[in-house]
Protein backbone atom coordinates (compact mmCIF):
# COMPACT_ATOMS: atom_id res chain seq x y z
CA UNK A 1 0.00 0.00 0.00
CA UNK A 2 2.74 2.41 0.97
CA UNK A 3 4.80 1.39 -2.02
CA UNK A 4 1.88 2.07 -4.32
CA UNK A 5 1.30 5.50 -2.87
CA UNK A 6 5.00 6.28 -3.12
CA UNK A 7 4.98 5.24 -6.76
CA UNK A 8 1.99 7.53 -7.54
CA UNK A 9 3.61 10.36 -5.67
CA UNK A 10 6.82 9.94 -7.67
CA UNK A 11 4.89 9.99 -10.95
CA UNK A 12 3.08 13.13 -9.89
CA UNK A 13 6.39 14.80 -9.03
CA UNK A 14 7.84 13.82 -12.42
CA UNK A 15 4.80 15.26 -14.23
CA UNK A 16 4.15 18.43 -12.26
CA UNK A 17 7.40 19.02 -10.41
CA UNK A 18 10.57 20.88 -11.37
CA UNK A 19 11.77 18.05 -13.55
CA UNK A 20 8.43 17.81 -15.39
CA UNK A 21 8.59 18.34 -19.23
CA UNK A 22 7.71 21.79 -20.62
CA UNK A 23 4.26 22.27 -22.01
CA UNK A 24 3.47 24.84 -24.81
CA UNK A 25 0.09 26.40 -24.78
CA UNK A 26 -1.12 27.20 -28.27
CA UNK A 27 -4.16 29.07 -29.44
CA UNK A 28 -6.51 26.93 -31.39
CA UNK A 29 -6.83 28.10 -35.08
CA UNK A 30 -9.57 26.71 -37.22
CA UNK A 31 -8.50 24.65 -40.20
CA UNK A 32 -10.15 26.90 -42.82
CA UNK A 33 -8.04 29.89 -41.62
CA UNK A 34 -4.97 27.75 -42.03
CA UNK A 35 -6.01 26.78 -45.57
CA UNK A 36 -6.79 30.41 -46.42
CA UNK A 37 -3.38 31.54 -45.08
CA UNK A 38 -1.67 28.92 -47.25
CA UNK A 39 -3.57 30.08 -50.33
CA UNK A 40 -2.65 33.74 -49.63
CA UNK A 41 0.99 32.81 -49.16
CA UNK A 42 1.06 30.81 -52.40
CA UNK A 43 -0.67 33.66 -54.26
CA UNK A 44 1.81 36.19 -52.89
CA UNK A 45 4.76 34.07 -53.98
CA UNK A 46 3.17 33.56 -57.41
CA UNK A 47 2.52 37.32 -57.73
CA UNK A 48 6.10 38.12 -56.79
CA UNK A 49 7.42 35.59 -59.33
CA UNK A 50 5.09 36.95 -62.04
CA UNK A 51 6.07 40.52 -61.29
CA UNK A 52 9.77 39.66 -61.41
CA UNK A 53 9.42 37.81 -64.69
CA UNK A 54 7.34 40.62 -66.18
CA UNK A 55 9.85 43.28 -65.06
CA UNK A 56 12.76 41.19 -66.31
CA UNK A 57 11.13 40.58 -69.69
CA UNK A 58 10.17 44.25 -70.04
CA UNK A 59 13.69 45.28 -69.10
CA UNK A 60 15.15 42.92 -71.66
CA UNK A 61 12.71 44.05 -74.33
CA UNK A 62 13.39 47.71 -73.53
CA UNK A 63 17.15 47.09 -73.55
CA UNK A 64 16.92 45.21 -76.84
CA UNK A 65 14.76 47.98 -78.31
CA UNK A 66 17.19 50.64 -77.05
CA UNK A 67 20.14 48.71 -78.48
CA UNK A 68 18.37 48.36 -81.81
CA UNK A 69 17.49 52.05 -81.78
CA UNK A 70 21.08 52.92 -80.85
CA UNK A 71 22.38 50.77 -83.70
CA UNK A 72 20.04 52.54 -86.11
CA UNK A 73 21.19 55.92 -84.81
CA UNK A 74 24.86 54.90 -85.13
CA UNK A 75 24.29 53.65 -88.67
CA UNK A 76 22.44 56.86 -89.53
CA UNK A 77 25.31 58.92 -88.13
CA UNK A 78 27.82 56.84 -90.09
CA UNK A 79 25.86 57.41 -93.28
CA UNK A 80 25.69 61.14 -92.53
CA UNK A 81 29.45 61.27 -91.89
CA UNK A 82 30.10 59.43 -95.17
CA UNK A 83 27.86 61.90 -96.97
CA UNK A 84 29.70 64.81 -95.37
CA UNK A 85 33.04 63.26 -96.39
CA UNK A 86 31.83 63.02 -99.98
CA UNK A 87 30.65 66.63 -99.87
CA UNK A 88 33.97 67.72 -98.35
CA UNK A 89 35.93 65.88 -101.04
CA UNK A 90 33.75 67.47 -103.71
CA UNK A 91 34.20 70.93 -102.18
CA UNK A 92 37.96 70.43 -101.94
CA UNK A 93 38.06 69.50 -105.60
CA UNK A 94 35.98 72.54 -106.49
CA UNK A 95 38.21 74.74 -104.31
CA UNK A 96 41.34 73.37 -105.96
CA UNK A 97 39.84 73.97 -109.39
CA UNK A 98 38.75 77.46 -108.36
CA UNK A 99 42.21 78.22 -106.95
CA UNK A 100 43.80 77.05 -110.19
CA UNK A 101 41.39 79.17 -112.21
CA UNK A 102 42.05 82.20 -110.00
CA UNK A 103 45.80 81.64 -110.29
CA UNK A 104 45.51 81.45 -114.08
CA UNK A 105 43.37 84.58 -114.13
CA UNK A 106 45.82 86.34 -111.83
CA UNK A 107 48.76 85.37 -114.03
CA UNK A 108 46.87 86.40 -117.16
CA UNK A 109 45.89 89.71 -115.56
CA UNK A 110 49.48 90.33 -114.53
CA UNK A 111 50.69 89.59 -118.05
CA UNK A 112 48.03 91.88 -119.49
CA UNK A 113 49.04 94.60 -117.03
CA UNK A 114 52.66 94.25 -118.12
CA UNK A 115 51.61 94.39 -121.77
CA UNK A 116 49.46 97.45 -121.11
CA UNK A 117 52.35 99.11 -119.30
CA UNK A 118 54.75 98.27 -122.12
CA UNK A 119 52.24 99.49 -124.72
CA UNK A 120 51.74 102.68 -122.72
CA UNK A 121 55.48 103.32 -122.67
CA UNK A 122 55.77 102.54 -126.37
CA UNK A 123 52.77 104.73 -127.14
CA UNK A 124 54.30 107.61 -125.20
CA UNK A 125 57.55 107.13 -127.10
CA UNK A 126 55.71 107.08 -130.44
CA UNK A 127 53.88 110.26 -129.51
CA UNK A 128 57.19 111.91 -128.69
CA UNK A 129 58.67 110.69 -131.97
CA UNK A 130 55.62 111.92 -133.88
CA UNK A 131 55.83 115.34 -132.25
CA UNK A 132 59.49 115.50 -133.18
CA UNK A 133 58.78 114.45 -136.76
CA UNK A 134 56.17 117.18 -137.03
CA UNK A 135 58.72 119.70 -135.81
CA UNK A 136 61.34 118.30 -138.16
CA UNK A 137 59.26 118.35 -141.37
CA UNK A 138 60.56 120.13 -143.27
CA UNK A 139 64.00 120.07 -141.75
CA UNK A 140 64.34 123.75 -140.95
CA UNK A 141 66.11 123.37 -137.62
CA UNK A 142 69.34 122.16 -139.16
CA UNK A 143 68.91 123.73 -142.59
CA UNK A 144 71.96 123.05 -144.75
CA UNK A 145 74.11 122.35 -141.73
CA UNK A 146 75.22 118.71 -141.74
CA UNK A 147 75.74 116.71 -138.61
CA UNK A 148 74.15 114.73 -135.74
CA UNK A 149 71.59 115.85 -133.24
CA UNK A 150 70.08 114.22 -130.14
CA UNK A 151 66.43 114.94 -129.53
CA UNK A 152 64.08 114.06 -126.63
CA UNK A 153 66.49 112.28 -124.29
CA UNK A 154 64.53 110.46 -121.58
CA UNK A 155 65.89 108.57 -118.55
CA UNK A 156 63.43 106.68 -116.34
CA UNK A 157 63.77 104.17 -113.47
CA UNK A 158 63.80 100.53 -114.56
CA UNK A 159 62.12 97.47 -113.08
CA UNK A 160 64.97 96.60 -110.71
CA UNK A 161 66.56 98.73 -108.04
CA UNK A 162 69.50 100.68 -109.43
CA UNK A 163 68.43 100.23 -113.07
CA UNK A 164 67.49 103.07 -115.43
CA UNK A 165 66.11 103.03 -118.94
CA UNK A 166 67.24 105.60 -121.50
CA UNK A 167 65.59 106.57 -124.77
CA UNK A 168 66.49 109.15 -127.39
CA UNK A 169 66.03 110.05 -131.05
CA UNK A 170 69.17 110.55 -133.10
CA UNK A 171 69.00 112.76 -136.21
CA UNK A 172 71.52 113.05 -138.99
CA UNK A 173 71.20 115.87 -141.49
CA UNK A 174 73.10 115.59 -144.73
CA UNK A 175 71.84 118.98 -145.98
CA UNK A 176 68.84 119.99 -148.03
CA UNK A 177 70.31 119.04 -151.39
CA UNK A 178 72.64 116.24 -150.36
CA UNK A 179 71.89 112.61 -151.05
CA UNK A 180 71.39 110.80 -147.68
CA UNK A 181 73.90 108.09 -146.96
CA UNK A 182 74.34 105.76 -144.01
CA UNK A 183 76.46 107.16 -141.21
CA UNK A 184 77.94 105.11 -138.38
CA UNK A 185 78.54 106.21 -134.84
CA UNK A 186 78.78 105.14 -131.22
CA UNK A 187 76.79 106.10 -128.15
CA UNK A 188 78.38 107.03 -124.84
CA UNK A 189 76.64 107.90 -121.56
CA UNK A 190 78.30 110.03 -118.89
CA UNK A 191 76.46 109.22 -115.65
CA UNK A 192 77.05 111.34 -112.56
CA UNK A 193 76.06 109.92 -109.19
CA UNK A 194 76.45 110.63 -105.48
CA UNK A 195 77.51 107.71 -103.30
CA UNK A 196 78.52 107.68 -99.62
CA UNK A 197 78.50 111.50 -99.57
CA UNK A 198 80.86 111.76 -102.55
CA UNK A 199 80.29 112.61 -106.22
CA UNK A 200 81.38 110.11 -108.86
CA UNK A 201 81.23 109.77 -112.64
CA UNK A 202 80.55 106.57 -114.55
CA UNK A 203 81.29 106.22 -118.26
CA UNK A 204 79.02 103.79 -120.12
CA UNK A 205 80.04 101.69 -121.91
CA UNK A 206 83.32 100.67 -120.40
CA UNK A 207 86.30 100.16 -122.69
CA UNK A 208 85.60 96.44 -122.87
CA UNK A 209 82.00 97.16 -124.02
CA UNK A 210 82.66 99.93 -126.55
CA UNK A 211 82.26 97.65 -129.57
CA UNK A 212 79.11 95.92 -128.38
CA UNK A 213 76.17 96.15 -130.75
CA UNK A 214 73.81 98.01 -128.43
CA UNK A 215 76.13 101.03 -128.31
CA UNK A 216 76.80 101.17 -132.08
CA UNK A 217 74.35 102.67 -134.59
CA UNK A 218 74.01 103.34 -138.30
CA UNK A 219 71.50 105.81 -139.73
CA UNK A 220 70.64 107.90 -142.74
CA UNK A 221 68.29 110.38 -141.15
CA UNK A 222 66.54 109.17 -138.00
CA UNK A 223 67.23 106.44 -135.49
CA UNK A 224 65.91 105.71 -132.03
CA UNK A 225 68.35 104.51 -129.41
CA UNK A 226 67.23 102.92 -126.17
CA UNK A 227 68.62 100.62 -123.51
CA UNK A 228 69.26 100.06 -119.82
CA UNK A 229 72.16 100.97 -117.56
CA UNK A 230 72.74 100.33 -113.86
CA UNK A 231 74.33 102.22 -111.00
CA UNK A 232 75.16 100.99 -107.46
CA UNK A 233 72.01 100.42 -105.45
CA UNK A 234 73.11 102.78 -102.67
CA UNK A 235 73.94 105.59 -105.13
CA UNK A 236 71.77 108.56 -106.18
CA UNK A 237 71.55 109.49 -109.86
CA UNK A 238 72.38 113.17 -110.45
CA UNK A 239 72.59 113.57 -114.23
CA UNK A 240 73.01 111.68 -117.51
CA UNK A 241 74.70 113.06 -120.62
CA UNK A 242 74.29 111.22 -123.92
CA UNK A 243 77.09 111.68 -126.45
CA UNK A 244 77.24 110.66 -130.10
CA UNK A 245 80.79 109.85 -131.21
CA UNK A 246 82.14 109.48 -134.72
CA UNK A 247 85.78 108.66 -135.33
CA UNK A 248 86.44 109.21 -131.62
CA UNK A 249 85.08 112.79 -131.63
CA UNK A 250 81.87 113.97 -129.95
CA UNK A 251 79.44 115.07 -132.70
CA UNK A 252 76.36 115.75 -130.54
CA UNK A 253 75.31 115.61 -126.92
CA UNK A 254 72.34 116.21 -124.67
CA UNK A 255 71.89 115.81 -120.92
CA UNK A 256 69.16 115.45 -118.30
CA UNK A 257 69.51 116.49 -114.66
CA UNK A 258 67.71 114.91 -111.67
TrEMBL record:
The keyword Transmembrane applies. Pfam families: DUF6776 (PF20567). It comes from the Bacteria. Residues 67-129 form a coiled coil. The keyword Coiled coil applies. InterPro entries: DUF6776. The chain crosses the membrane at residues 31-52. Keywords: Coiled coil, Membrane, Transmembrane, Transmembrane helix. This is DUF6776 family protein. It comes from Dentiradicibacter hellwigii.
Amino acid sequence: MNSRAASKLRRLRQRFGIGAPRVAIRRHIPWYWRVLSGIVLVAAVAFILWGYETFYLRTRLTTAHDQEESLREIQSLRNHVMELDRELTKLRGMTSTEDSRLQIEKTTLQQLSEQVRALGIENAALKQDLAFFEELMPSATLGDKTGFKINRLRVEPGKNNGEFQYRMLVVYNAGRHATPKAMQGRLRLIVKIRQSGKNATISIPTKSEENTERFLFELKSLHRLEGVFAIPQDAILRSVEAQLLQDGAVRAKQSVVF
